[in-house]
Amino acid sequence: MRIVRCTYEDHAGSILAILNEAIVNSTALFDYEPRSPESMVEWFRVKAVRQFPVIGAEADDRALLGFATYGTFRAWPAYKYSVEHSIYVHADHRRRGVATALMKHLIDLAIDQRYHTLVAGIDAANAPSIALHERLGFAHVGTVRDAGFKFGRWLDLAFYQLLLPTPLQPRDG
Description:
Elements: E1 2-5, H1 8-25, H2 39-49, E2 54-58, E3 64-72, E4 82-89, H3 98-112, E5 117-123, H4 127-135, E6 139-150, E7 153-163
Parallel strand pairs: 4-5
Antiparallel strand pairs: 1-2, 2-3, 3-4, 5-7, 6-7
């Protein structure tokens, strides 16, 4: 397995397949309908414009095992040092260290880009994702009860946070 920068040309189809599997079969995304191939054009464009990384874990045959990224946490200027991340692993490759490798690399990228806070919004019933984040030093900072409704039930959204040692000299504005 190797960590790579994902591109639209090489990875959009695989990322879309992983996302759509999670939408249809899990509460990892509070989304109902699978996304269209066309949606990936804008998704990658926004990531590029904002300089948000999209990284993937590839097998030796270049198959995408999973991916991770981050994006805007909240749209107001004072949140400029905070990002919310997403990590998804192909159903056939879960619990094999893919998510850990991706998250460690994503944390390093966030430090390189001088962010201060990584935020994860996780379905409170998603014990494997919570365990992963706790192993990597994330702390539970709150839960929004009944934040979503999917598969005929209310879902609680747990927030986990990792404070990073950057930026060294944060500034207003």
